[in-house]
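Troubleshooting: if your tokenizer reports a length mismatch, compare your output against this known-good record of 156 residues.
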Amino acid sequence: MLLSTITDALIDAGVSVVTHVPASGVTEVYDAFCDQAHSAKIYSYHEEVAFAIGMYLAGYQPVWSVVGDFSFVAAAHLGLAEAIQRHIPLKVLIFNNGVAAATGGQPLHAKVLEHIISGYRSYLHTIRFDADLTEMEKMLIKVKHSDRLEIVSIEF
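Known-good structure output:
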């Protein structure tokens, strides 16, 4: 599954990751500096960005928040203003597939996500899932090394 592949790659690269796993209804927090057996599992929806900010402030750096488009629209975007205000170089990876995968696949109209994210355009990088893998890797490396908030939307 793509989510687990990307999460594993980030952890292998020394990044702490906060993500919601639809199948289990659990928000998982992976500390890149210990094995996954020591990861925290938190029963909470849509708080990936807020938890990632907390991890950063607790000294776990770098941190990526991996979130679905519906979770981002529902509440995850609320933490972005906090990240900007505190100058936290958080990285947010949005899986933009146009549906609420965690709750049955209800459609999410593209205009809703566009409206929510419009205030963060200067932080946004968009790439298609079917793009050249070399192009995607270059963009993710650039984002990883940035010293500011960065948002990557992978469109399916």
